[in-house]
Amino acid sequence: MTRPRPRAVFWAGIAAILTLLLAGFGGRLHPAGDSLAVARIWLVVAGLIWIGAFVLRHAVRLRAALSLGAVLLAIAATTSAGWLQVAGRAVGPTVYQKNMSFRLRDTTALANDILALRPDIVTLQEIDDDNASLRQQISAALPSWHRCVSDTVGGEAIATHWPVLDRACGPGAAALRVQSPAGPLWIVSVHLHWPWPARQARQVADLLPWLETLDRPVIVAGDFNMVPWSWAVRSIARATGTARAGAPLHTFRVRSVAPVAIDNILLPGGTGRAATRPPLGSDHWGLVVTATEE
C-alpha cells in the first residue's frame, strides 16, 4: 500500500482546519456555526502547529507556510477586538457578573467578594432556593433585587443600589429597570442554553423580540454559554444597542481544561475595563467590568 506523500497530508490537514474555521463564521445560517466559533482560537493554534511541524520536515515551502500563517492570524484577529480597547477614565457603572452554580451552598465567600468590590450592579445565574441566601448577605449594600425562575438551571437575578422602576422576566432572563444617576436604565441578567445541538439558537430566537421591547439604554450581562464573536452574542448586542465591553477573558473551562470566554457584559458604549474574579465555589469565574470613556 502506497503511503500518502507528506505534502498531500499537509494540504489535507490545512483544508480541514480552514473549512472548520470558515464554518465558524456561519452562525447566522446554522447554529452549528456558533458551536464551531467557540473553537476558533484552538483551531488557529492547531493550524499554526500543523504548519510548523511540516516546515521542520521540509515538506512545505517557507513562503507558503508564512502565507498560510498570516491567514490564520487574520482569522484569529476576529476574536481580539476587546483586547484592542484602550480603557479610559471610568465614567459609568461597575457590573459584577457571576454564574453562581446550582451546586453552591455556602455563599459567604461570594458575598464578601461582592461587598469588597462595591459594584453598582450584580447579575447572577443558577440562583435557586439553596443559594438564594446571597440576597440577604448583600442586601444592605444592594437593596434592589429581582429574581426570575426559568427553564435553565435555577434562575436569573439582579441586585443593585439604584431605585427600581419596573421588573420583567423573559426567556432565560431577568430584567430590572432602575433610576440610575444618568436616568432610567434596563439591566438584564441572561442565561443561555448550551449551543447547538442543544437549544441555544431557539432560545435566542425567542429572546431577541423580547429584548427589543426594552427602552434603551440597556445593560446585558450573563452566562451566554457562547463566545463574544459568535452570531448569538452579536445578535443580542444589536437587539439592545450594546456592545461587549472589555477584553474576552476566560470565565469557564470546558471539561475543566479548555478556557473559554462565555460570560459577557454588554454596555451601551461598548467600552470598559474588565477583570475576572475567583470561582469561589462555582465552576465559573466572576467577570467585573467598569464602563470607561472611549
TrEMBL record:
InterPro entries: Endo/exonu/phosph_ase_sf, Endo/exonuclease/phosphatase
Gene Ontology MF terms: catalytic activity
Domain Endonuclease/exonuclease/phosphatase: 105-284
Keyword Hydrolase listed: no
Residues that span the membrane, as ranges: 39-57, 64-84
UniProt keyword Transport, yes or no: no
Top-level division of the source organism's lineage: Bacteria
Protein's name in the database: Endonuclease/exonuclease/phosphatase domain-containing protein
Organism: Oceaniovalibus guishaninsula JLT2003
